[in-house]
Amino acid sequence: MGLYFGGSAVLNAVYTVRIAHRLIGWFRDSAWLPPYRPLLAALERVAPAVVLATAAFEAVVGYHLVRNRRTAGALRWAQGWVLGLCPALPWPYWVPNAASAVVFEVVRRGAAAPGRAQAGVVSSASPPIGSRVASGA
């Protein structure tokens, strides 16, 4: 999942930034939640910066997921992002975003399930590395 976010960051930084004004304009015209239209109209002037900020956000989320660090928080931020984007997308384009928010929650709950250790995380029940108990001495 982290690679997905990393790939999205690269795509947005390399390709989407070139069509940023058209994309934000399309979001503005497609928005079905009233407060979104004026907000997106205001963001249209700085559309490339919005797209680059999006790419930076995706890169940070991807980094945390690939490194298996702060995964619950990264997945919550990702959920907020995809759900927040839904009102700017017309039918049927918002459906994959809504579905991905559900997938992010399933993954988040699976990663947080008891007995599922995360890489690089030492539980409080683990003996310190190098101790006699840990080395079997």
How would you describe the overall organization of this protein?
With 137 residues, the chain is an all-alpha fold. It has one domain (2-111). The protein has helices spanning 2-14, 20-30, 36-43, 47-66, 71-85, 94-112, 132-135. Helix 5 runs antiparallel to helix 6 (94-112).
What is the percentage of strand-forming residues?
under 5%
Whole-angstrom Rg = 20 Å
Low-confidence stretches: 119-127
Q: Report the biggest beta sheet as strand number plus sense, adding barrel if it closes.
A: none
The secondary-structure class comes to mainly alpha
Number of domains: 1
- The averaged pLDDT comes out at 86
Indicate the topology.
Blueprint: H1 2-14, H2 20-30, H3 36-43, H4 47-66, H5 71-85, H6 94-112, H7 132-135
Q: Can you summarize this structure?
A:
By secondary structure, the protein is an all-alpha fold. It has helices at 2-14, 20-30, 36-43, 47-66, 71-85, 94-112, 132-135.
